């Protein structure tokens, strides 16, 4: 089954470069190109798309503005923000509005492919530099604000999960993807995904970002 990708960037040379990098991969199909957010949204209504590579700084409708609409209208499309800027504000907004990943435009082919294949499986892909920004701006501030607020009836997530799940949770905190975790422990990415889902369920949260926040809060107590 091919991963169907829509490329969105206002520079045709960038779109052509990404296409040339990806189109020889046997598991990837480029279904279209868009030059701005408006065009991407229009194309998503007619093209079956699994992964959207979305530039952030574009005319008319920016990538962040488009992401807000796409997350609501096309929740099954996995969006990877593609930017020239390692800007904390962009990274935080991408997370807050539902991006599945964030890559810089000087990223090599191997990492682009890893990101595409990772988000296609339902996982998130934020490389270490972006993960660091997320923890500093989203997790640690909440941890500082809530460190004195303890619910005596709440059992720590670290006491609810198995030893293997604790190992996987620690890897998630370190910014590792499911394939990387699978490789470390000699298990399949599907097993990692299932165990991550089990941890999220036990923590009673909706996503990995919330899971990491709670895990860090409770580990520091």
From TrEMBL:
InterPro entries: CheY-like_superfamily, NreC/VraR/RcsB-like_REC, Sig_transdc_resp-reg_C-effctor, Sig_transdc_resp-reg_receiver, Tscrpt_reg_LuxR_C, WalR-like. GO terms for molecular function: DNA binding. The modification 4-aspartylphosphate is found at residue 55. Signal peptide: none annotated. Keywords: DNA-binding, Phosphoprotein. GO terms for biological process: phosphorelay signal transduction system; regulation of DNA-templated transcription. Residues 4-120 form the Response regulatory domain. Residues 154-219 form the HTH luxR-type domain. SUPFAM superfamilies: C-terminal effector domain of the bipartite response regulators, CheY-like. This is Response regulator. It comes from Spirosoma arboris.
């Amino acid at each position: 089954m091919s991963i169907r990708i829509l490329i969105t960037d206002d520079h045709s040379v960038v779109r052509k470069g990404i296409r040339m990098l990806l189109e020889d991969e046997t598991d990837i199909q480029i279904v279209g190109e868009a030059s701005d957010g408006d065009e991407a949204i229009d194309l998503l209504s007619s093209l079956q798309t699994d992964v959207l590579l979305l530039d952030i700084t574009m005319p008319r409708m920016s990538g962040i503005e488009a992401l807000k609409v796409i997350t609501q209208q096309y929740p099954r499309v996995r969006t990877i923000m593609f930017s020239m800027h390692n800007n904390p504000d962009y990274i935080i907004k991408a997370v807050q509005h539902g991006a599945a990943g964030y890559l810089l435009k000087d990223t090599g082919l191997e990492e682009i492919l890893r990101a595409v294949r990772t988000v296609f499986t339902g996982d998130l892909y934020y490389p270490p530099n972006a993960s660091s920004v997320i923890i500093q701006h989203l997790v640690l501030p909440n941890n500082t604000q809530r460190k004195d607020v303890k619910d005596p009836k709440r059992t720590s997530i670290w006491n609810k999960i198995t030893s293997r799940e604790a190992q996987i949770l620690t890897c998630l905190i370190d910014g590792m993807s499911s394939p990387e975790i699978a490789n470390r422990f000699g298990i399949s990415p599907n097993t990692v995904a299932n165990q991550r889902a089990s941890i999220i369920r036990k923590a009673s949260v909706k996503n990995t970002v919330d899971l990491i926040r709670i895990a860090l809060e409770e580990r520091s107590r």
